[in-house]
Design a protein that fits this description.
The chain is mainly alpha-helical. It has a single domain, classed as Heme Oxygenase, Chain A. It has 10 helices and 2 strands. It has a two-stranded antiparallel ribbon. The two termini are 39 Å apart.
Length: 262
C-alpha cells in the first residue's frame, strides 16, 4: 500500500482544498453523470423491476473493476475511511436471482452461479488506468465510487416514498374481498414496519442491500478528503481524468447488462 504523505512543500496555498476539488470534478464529470442519472431515472419506481435489476448488474460490474484497481493504490489509513460495497451488490444479485456476466470477462469459481457467464469482452479493458496510476488517480476513483452513495440515499428515499404512496398490493380473492378489497389489486395501508424499512440500518426489501449499505449515516467523502492534502494543484488534471474514466466505465457497462437482468 502507498504511504499517504503531505510534504512540507504542500503547505499553505499549494494544499488542495477538498471542497474546491470536488466542485471541479463535479463540473468535469457532469455530462456523463447526468446521462447515467437519466438512463436509470425510473429505478425510483419499485414497479420497474427490470430497470432496477439492470442498474444493480451495471453497478456491480463497475464496482468490481474499480475496487480491484483501487485496492493497491489506496493507503490503508484512507481505505479504512470508506465502505466497499461489492459484497452488498453480490447479495442483491443473489437475492433477486440475477445472472450478471463476470465484469472481468472470465469465470470466477469463487463467486458461484450468479457469475457463471463471462461478458462478451473484458470490461476491465475499458478502464484505461489498469496497471498504472497513483494517489491523484485514486482520488478521482474514490470521488466517483463514494459519491455514488449520495445518489443511493436519494434512490432509497424515493423508492420508500413511492411504496408508501402506493401501499402494499394484496391479491384479489375471497380473503382479500373479506378484508375490504375490490378489484385485482387492493392497496393496503402502510405499516410502521414498511415506514422503517427505508431508514439506514433497518431491514428492507430483498435486493436492496446495496442501497441500504450506501445510505448508512456518515461522511461520504471522508476518504477523498483525506487524500486531498497529498495532492498538488498540478495533480488535479490527473484526478479529473481518472474520475471521468470511472464514469465512462459505468457508461460502458450499461448496454452489457440489459440482456442479463430479468
Amino acid at each position: 500500500m502507498p504511504e499517504l504523505a503531505c510534504p512540507s512543500s504542500l503547505e499553505g496555498s499549494a494544499r488542495t482544498d477538498p471542497a474546491s476539488l470536488r466542485q471541479h470534478l463535479s463540473a468535469a464529470t457532469g455530462g456523463v453523470h447526468r446521462a447515467l442519472d437519466a438512463r436509470y431515472a425510473g429505478i425510483v419506481d419499485p414497479a420497474d423491476r427490470r430497470l432496477y435489476h439492470a442498474f444493480l448488474v451495471m453497478t456491480h460490474a463497475s464496482h468490481t473493476v474499480l475496487e480491484a484497481w483501487l485496492a493497491p493504490h489506496l493507503p490503508d489509513a484512507v481505505a479504512a475511511l470508506r465502505p466497499v460495497l461489492t459484497q452488498a451488490l453480490e447479495a442483491d444479485i443473489a437475492a433477486l436471482g440475477l445472472h450478471p456476466r463476470s465484469p472481468l470477462g472470465t469465470r470466477d469459481p469463487q463467486s458461484g452461479p450468479p457469475f457463471a457467464e463471462p461478458m462478451p469482452f473484458s470490461l476491465d479493458g475499458a478502464f484505461p488506468l489498469n496497471g498504472k496510476g497513483g494517489l491523484p488517480e485514486a482520488a478521482g476513483v474514490v470521488y466517483v465510487l463514494d459519491g455514488s452513495r449520495l445518489g443511493a440515499r436519494m434512490i432509497l428515499t424515493q423508492r420508500r416514498r413511492r411504496e408508501e404512496e402506493r401501499g402494499p398490493r394484496l391479491p384479489d380473492g375471497p380473503m382479500a374481498r373479506e378484508a375490504g378489497g375490490a378489484g385485482p389489486t387492493r392497496q393496503a395501508e402502510p405499516t410502521e414496519e414498511t415506514r422503517r424499512a427505508g431508514k439506514p440500518g433497518r431491514a428492507g426489501n430483498p435486493g436492496e442491500a446495496y442501497l441500504r449499505a450506501a445510505a448508512r449515516p456518515g461522511p461520504v467523502f471522508a476518504a477523498f478528503d483525506a487524500l486531498c492534502p497529498a495532492l498538488r494543484p498540478g495533480d488535479h488534471a490527473r484526478t479529473s481524468a481518472a474520475a471521468q474514466a470511472a464514469f465512462k466505465l459505468f457508461e460502458r457497462a450499461c448496454p452489457l447488462t440489459l440482456d442479463v437482468a430479468s
